[in-house]
Amino acid sequence: MLLVVASASADTTFKVGNLYYLYSSYYPNKVWVTYDPAQGSSAAHYTNLSGEITIPSSVTYNGQNYTVYGIGGNAFYKNSTISKINLPNTLRKINRYAFYNCTALTKITIPDGVTYIDEYTFQGCTKVSELNLSSSIDTIGRYAFKGCTSLHMLAIPEGVEKIFVGAFENCTNLSAVFFYGETLIQLYSNVFNGCTSLNSINFPNSLYMVGQKVVDGTPWWNNQADGLVYLGSAAYTYKGEMPDGTNITLRSGTKGIATNCFEGCIGLKSITLPNTLSIICDESFEGCTGLKSITIPNSVTEIWGYAFRNCSGLTSVTLPNSLKTIRDHTFEGCSSLKSVNVPNSVEEIGNSAFEGCSSLTTLPISNSVKKIGAAAYQNCTGLTSATIPNSVTTINNYAFSGCTVLQSLTIPSSVTYIDPYGNSIVNGCIHLKTLNIDNNKFADISYFKGVKGVVETVTLGNSIYTIPENAFKDCTALKKVTLPNDFTTLGNSAFSGCTQLENVYCPRPRPIPIDASVFSGVQQHEYCKLHVPAGCKGKYQAMNVWKEFYSIYEDAGSGGSGSGVPCDVNNDGKVDILDVNAIINYMLGRTN
């Protein structure tokens, strides 16, 4: 707290000449041009200045010289009197809203050294007719020049890589745009949307990531022929109405499929993708209900969210071995999807990635997946079992919610997080009969809310050593429980109220003391049977609570988590040095 206060106290606003400057301890010996702090950020600033002004490269205050490093946010916000601003070559940053609605400004020259034009920076500068961008700029922020209605020509220098949403939207007098060099890789949505005079534009081949409605409302777009339109190396969109049964082959050299490229093209029957393709942007095939199958080449490294959402006719998908993430909602609503390979390169299944894929009968996942997103498999009503691979560490809320025929779920020891805040991963799984849990943290029905009265079989794996209090209390449908080999704690009331419990398999050679509440309400004297390892019946009959089981069988090896193999002490299905070590540890008193 003291450090925070000290840092804040080092920030100072001072005035030199007609301008205010902000010094921050984060930028030693540097200052930002700012507004009069007495006015507040939303006021029109520097209304006392008019015509041409020059911002110096350095200022001196209290004997200290400072380099003018940036133009701060809202610095000249809504100024209507300044017509030209000369910016110094020391400038490196221009922050958001810096010249927002400067309606008298006629010329903008960005000095070399500035790499990023922030969002809304020059929006609404309606009289700017000349714009000079420096070659050092690599990014133009969203709406940076939106509504600059006097701008006629635009030259984008080599070096610019990304232009964000609506950067030049509604520049209604802009007639020509020239891109120099081959550095541009991404245009976000609406960049030139509404530029009603734009009839000439050259898109470089380096461009392959494209958003929606980039050139909508321009003469350039109106002059394009019906069919698939390309921007640079990106398939941009299909213009006109697509006939039923259309087969498309993307041209060689295509690197990207734009956002919404084929959205709603119900006539698309098939598409062939080239080996040059590297990205499929969001919503690119959403609602293509006529698409039956697709093979995505290994050159593709990214498939963005919603890409195939509601492709209800899609039955099979072949994913590339280069893919690392299946993003949010990618295949949501693909109700006919039966076959999808998830390659071992994939590390994350996004939120709702397969939600509503009701024809899937096997879990689409690989042995490399680390994270399962929220509702990832929600309403996959064809899934009967789900075995989570040992690579998974996180399962988020509602992951299997609504999987109404899911009967078996296996949670491995690798999982470190299951949503604990009431949003059960198995909400609505009304037929989930079997839970296989091999994780000490989740040996508790509270992590599987909604199925307490449904689950009939619980198998606790050998990674579990502590079964907490009330772990499976009142699981009224529970019939069979298999305990771990080496558990050390069986908490009070762990199986209290499990009135239908018929079989308890306990593979420990020697019983541990437990409280009478553990099996309170269980019919130990009637039909609930206890299964223990061979030769151990007498030990359990001599131990309080355990001895209350009227029927004790020495078959835990074959009926429980044990293997049934003679001399297989650790019940791993074979006799080897591990069994010898287990015997030695027992003789030395290291284990029970």
List keywords for this structure.
592 residues, mainly beta, Leucine-rich repeat, LRR (right-handed beta-alpha superhelix), eight-stranded parallel β-sheet, six-stranded mixed β-sheet, 5% helix
Task: Tell me about this structure.
The protein is mainly β and 592 residues long. Among the domains are: 225-323, Ribonuclease Inhibitor (Leucine-rich repeat, LRR (right-handed beta-alpha superhelix), Alpha-Beta Horseshoe), CATH 3.80.10; 453-592, Leucine-rich repeat, LRR (right-handed beta-alpha superhelix), CATH 3.80.10. The protein is 5% helix and 24% strand. It contains five helices and 43 strands. It has an eight-stranded parallel sheet with strand order 32-34-36-37-39-41-42-43. Strands 1, 2, 3, 5, 6 and 8 form a six-stranded mixed sheet that branches. It is elongated and about 100 Å long. The chain starts with a helix and ends in a 5-residue tail after the last helix.
CATH third-tier fold name of the domain at 453-592: Leucine-rich repeat, LRR (right-handed beta-alpha superhelix)
CATH architecture of the domain at 453-592: Alpha-Beta Horseshoe
Question: Which ranges are low-confidence, i.e. pLDDT below 50, for 5 or more consecutive residues?
Answer: 1-9, 558-564
**For the terminal residues, how far apart are their CA atoms?**
51 Å
Question: How many strands in all?
Answer: 43
Main sheet characteristics: 8 strands, parallel
Strand order of the largest sheet: 32-34-36-37-39-41-42-43
Spatial extent as radius of gyration: 34 Å
The outline comes out as: elongated
